[in-house]
Sequence to fold (402 residues):
Amino acid sequence: MNDVDPNVKTTGSVLEVLKVCTRLGLTSFGGPIAHLGYFHEEYVKRRKWVDEQSYADLVALCQFLPGPASSQVGIAIGIERAGLLGGLAAWVGFTLPSAIALVVFAYVLKGLNIQHAGWLHGLMIVAVAVVAQAVWSMATKLAPDKPRGTIAILAAITTLVWPTAFIQVLIIVLAGVVGWLLFFKRQVSDAPPMRVPIERKTAIFSLVLFFAFLIVLPMLRSVTHSQTLALIDSFYRAGALVFGGGHVVLPLLQNAVVTPGWLTNGEFLAGYGAAQAVPGPLFTFSAYLGAVMHPRPNGILGATLALISIFLPAFLLVIGALPFWNAMRRHSGFQSVLMGINASVVGILVAALYNPVWTSAVKTPVDFCLAIAAFGLLVIWKVPPWVVVLLSAIGGAVVSSL
Fold:
């Protein structure tokens, strides 16, 4: 019996997904929250690959899962658009540009101090505009009334007062409970079905693999004493056990590679500075670490192993969760839970807009002016995000030179 979701027909090609995601991988500056803004603009508003509700539900799902949330959303949309190969193409396109750039940094520019570059500060400022645009767009649809608006505000306050990954997951869970209590008897519309071309037996196998690697890799590492296996194990665990993604993974990686003496703390921080200057997911920092950890002839191998190992849990979890999530989100009772969860996600995005996006970028009135200008170009003039990114980088460089 074939247990694939009945709406399995894909509507795009793998090459189409690769092309679109590569452009996003070249222009999506600003970190994971900003990425969700870029995705919303590209996948929901411009290309209409997914509808507003499905996108919000995917974001909610990936907030639950450990790993890089924005990359997982991209992988899920790629799977829906063009099957499992579409998910792979989405990851390759979004990830490879920054991974290649960071390997180049590892080989050539490792000692370059770019943390105070004006153009980099301009990229940080445009992230403020991108996140603000995403928050505004999602809030008008996911928190349009007093109950959901209140959930969003309380979620934002709680996230800012207790900024930990555990609290974030707890907020989502509690918001789901509140949503069920408040909206269970409310008439809700049928959620538009998502195309999930994955058999449930494939999903179950993927989840089994996720936990198998988590158990077996440390055992093999202890038996073989191989640095290659140790590298794979360290980066796999980092990708599998961190909630919130992005900057949250940095302490885990620092402990994994600096403590054993694989590279110095100075090398780690230099790579982190480089990671701020490239678009795409921060998890590609692993490519830099893998390249530095190995002698030069094996740098590419180390970068490849580290990159695949840290992202593999994200793939396995998305593949394992999507078919079941699709069935759950179409259940009328679960929709009331999702109404609360999606409102809390808006609040979490509001908190992220302030910290770290706003606090790390807006330092002076001139910074605020650049952020307003970028926001106006995006929202009022509908300028393509990559153009706004380029203009903001130029603006930051000009301001820093004055």
Notes: Residues 69-107 form the longest helix (39 residues).
